[in-house]
Design brief:
The complex is a heterodimer of chains A (354) and B (282).
Chain A lengths: L8 H11 L8 H11 L4 H10 L4 H13 L6 E2 L6 E7 L29 H4 L68 H9 L3 H12 L5 E16 L6 E20 L2 E12 L3 H15 L8 H7 L2 H10 L5 H26 L2
Antiparallel strand pairs in A: 1-3, 2-3, 3-4, 4-5
Helix pairs in contact in A: 2-3, 2-4, 3-4, 6-8, 7-8
Chain B lengths: L2 H7 L11 H16 L5 E2 L13 H10 L5 E6 L6 H14 L2 E2 L8 E5 L12 E5 L13 H9 L4 H14 L10 E3 L3 E3 L6 H4 L9 E5 L4 E5 L5 E3 L26 E3 L7 E3 L2 H9 L1
Helix pairs in contact in B: 2-3
Classes of the chains: A alpha+beta (354), B alpha/beta (282).
């Protein structure tokens, strides 16, 4: 179990091992981040894009989105619970959740001390270094007694349902939102589905920053559940219409509980966030923002601000557009300022004559 | 003395107790100042620590600045010594400071804790270090930190009282849950860190010092021994503690702070694992 790990040092070691990533420097987390921010699950293409962009994440995301913009778009069938094979599932709200807690690859457990390649002693980083033997199946449970691997989504009922008997802000049920790739989100208000889709491909830094700003106004934010999983994506067969598996996509999902007022009484709002790739930080941040927008926190967390701020290509594009020549337009500003200062210089004696 | 001699003297890859002496001095000075100004938030140059910010980097800096070879260290998270993060920090402290560790509250000389205060009473020779995420008790009602600092300087706790009044009128009591604000020495408004209200009521006139470290927000707050600590509450509306749905399924206590692992299961357990074990074995 996540909360109590006395009997499972082996699981922690295994988890560190899993989170440590491939030794060949394959930049797994970076590839996942670029895929997520681009909204395109294509790790191989993302790797090329990162390379072509000299490691500039913004540019790599641009390359990927530009490439994907003109590709055909198929509508997929909603992912079934049993098609979501969990790798990791934790809850900081309750210790014993139905379906269990699964440590999986926990990047937070990795050492935060720099490893020097030529200094073997620095690798023994104060008990915070991977140890133990890797296991083949890639499934580790923190409870040393568990024999089977983690469940599918079907075997892990939603943790947030455990507070369902309390006053909880319930979002209006609505159909799937528009795909942000195909429809603009510039006309607000937008549906919650569209908001979640936009959050899913939001810029990581912006998501995390806004989630922090949002927290200042909240009392306590608790992670009901965070999962990483591999989802089987199915689309309807063009002839038979029957769902056919076309891709395996890594996804991260999170639900956070924050306090809010429900009909004038103290209650909870449950925010949801999801992203493709293994990006717990992104999913949790997105869920905090969804909760804040549901609760109508407003201010910097109003829908319009969040939607504008998380669109990394737009915000980066604005900053970089200043590199374009502004000779003609700036001449106009210069003229205006010069005229204005002339005018006020002439008016000065009049002002002084009171 | 040559540069080579100096380098040889420092040939270890890591200083004693992880932090270099200059960093420790910084933390110790802030602690002294905090002890001289009970309940106030004292800024310090918080270092980047080998734990994630928000995972106890403040508490860890306090512990590492205080720990010496004779100490026995206990680290708990939500009352539990076995918790993952507590184990990691305990290992770090033990290995870099070469100290003994324990899970027994009575045996420890330094107890670092996240979000709980040990239920076994501490002695004057013990130090309690609390990890603190939000040192500013006014943060919800006074968003501007400079304005909040000015209010603390003027001893003006009005916004906190108004917030409490608002909660009382509209909801019948504080809606804050954990992290209920405290009045230290009757004048300083402070955060006790997100300990449950059960713990807030145990903070008054303790025989040992309590140091609260906030690494992410770079503040240290202290409660010197025997300091008066009262929860912010109206005279006719005392702070109520949390209620559990049944006695602890392990030790049968009905007085301890208990949590339900799986809500609705009716299985309540002490959150302070050592106190629970102590009750079962003695």
């Amino acid at each position: 179990m996540y909360a109590t790990l006395i009997a499972s040092a082996r699981a922690v070691d295994a988890s560190r091992r899993l989170a440590g990533g491939a030794p060949d420097g394959s930049l797994g987390a970076l590839v996942d981040q670029v895929c997520a921010e681009a909204g395109v699950w294509a790790p191989g293409v993302a790797r090329s894009a990162i390379d072509q962009a000299n490691g500039d994440v913004h540019r790599a995301v641009t390359l990927l989105r530009v490439w994907a913009a003109t590709l055909p778009v198929l509508e997929s069938v909603p992912v079934a619970d049993e098609d979501r094979r969990l790798h990791r599932r934790i809850s900081s709200a309750f210790a014993d959740v139905p379906g269990g807690q699964w440590l999986g690859a926990a990047p937070q457990l990795l050492s935060r001390l720099l490893k020097w390649p030529d200094d073997p002693s620095s690798v023994a980083a104060a008990g915070m270094e991977p140890g133990g033997e890797p296991t083949a199946d890639g499934a580790f449970v923190a409870s040393a007694t568990a024999a089977a691997g983690p469940p599918t989504g079907a075997g892990a009922p939603r943790v947030a349902d455990l507070v369902d008997h309390l006053p909880v802000l319930r979002p209006t049920p609505e159909p799937d939102g528009p795909d942000p790739v195909l429809e603009p989100l510039t006309t607000q208000p937008i549906s919650r589905g569209a908001r979640l889709a936009a959050l899913a491909r939001g810029e990581t830094g912006a998501l995390v920053t806004l989630a922090n700003l949002g927290h200042a106004g909240q009392r306590e934010e608790v992670l009901a559940e965070a999962t990483t999983a591999t989802a089987t994506i199915r689309v309807g067969h063009p002839r038979t219409g029957r769902p056919v598996a076309v891709a395996e996509v890594d996804i991260s999902q999170a639900e956070t509980i924050a306090d809010t007022e429900v009909d004038g009484r103290p209650g909870f709002v449950i925010g949801f966030g999801a992203t493709i790739g293994r990006g717990e930080r992104r999913a949790i941040a997105a869920s905090i923002l969804d909760g804040a927008m549901q609760a109508g926190v407003g201010g910097v967390l109003s829908e319009s601000t969040v939607m504008a701020a998380i669109d990394g290509l737009a915000t980066g594009g604005f900053v970089e557009h200043l590199c374009l020549p502004h000779y003609a337009s700036f001449a106009s500003y210069v003229g205006q300022v010069a005229d204005g200062s002339d005018r006020s210089a002439n008016e000065e004696p009049a002002d002084d004559g009171r | 003395m040559t540069v080579a001699d100096l380098a040889r003297a420092h040939a270890q890859t890591m200083p004693y107790a992880y932090l270099d002496e200059r960093s420790k001095r910084e933390v110790r000075r802030a602690m002294l100042k905090a002890l001289a100004l009970p309940g106030r938030q004292v800024p310090f140059a918080s270092r980047e620590m080998p734990v994630a910010r928000g995972w106890g980097s403040g508490g860890l800096q306090v512990t590492l600045s205080m720990v010496g070879p004779g100490d026995v260290v206990k680290v708990i998270d939500q009352g539990d010594d076995g918790s993952l993060n507590a184990s990691s920090m305990r290992d770090l402290i033990a290995q870099t400071a070469a100290v003994e560790t324990t899970t027994r509250t009575r045996e420890a000389s330094i107890i670092q804790s996240r979000h709980r205060i040990p239920e076994i009473p501490l002695r004057a020779d013990q130090l309690l270090v609390l990890q603190m995420p939000h040192p500013e008790p006014l943060r919800r009602v006074v968003p501007d930190p400079a304005r909040a600092a000015a209010m603390h300087a003027e001893g003006d706790a009005t916004p906190a009282w108004v917030e409490l009044y608002d909660d009382t009128v509209r909801h019948g009591g504080s809606t804050g849950g954990a992290d209920h604000p405290i009045l230290v020495d009757g004048v300083s408004l402070a955060s006790p860190s997100p300990v449950p209200r059960f713990d807030v009521l145990t903070l008054d006139r303790r025989p040992h010092p309590v140091i609260l470290g906030a690494g992410r927000l770079a503040r240290i707050t202290a409660l010197p021994p025997w300091t008066s600590v009262q929860p912010l509450a109206f005279a006719d509306r005392p702070l109520r503690t949390e209620s559990a749905g049944g006695p602890c399924e392990r030790c049968d206590s009905a007085e301890s702070y208990r949590v339900e692992g799986n809500p609705g299961s009716g299985r309540w357990r002490c959150s302070d694992v050592d106190a629970c074990t102590d009750r079962r074995t003695t």
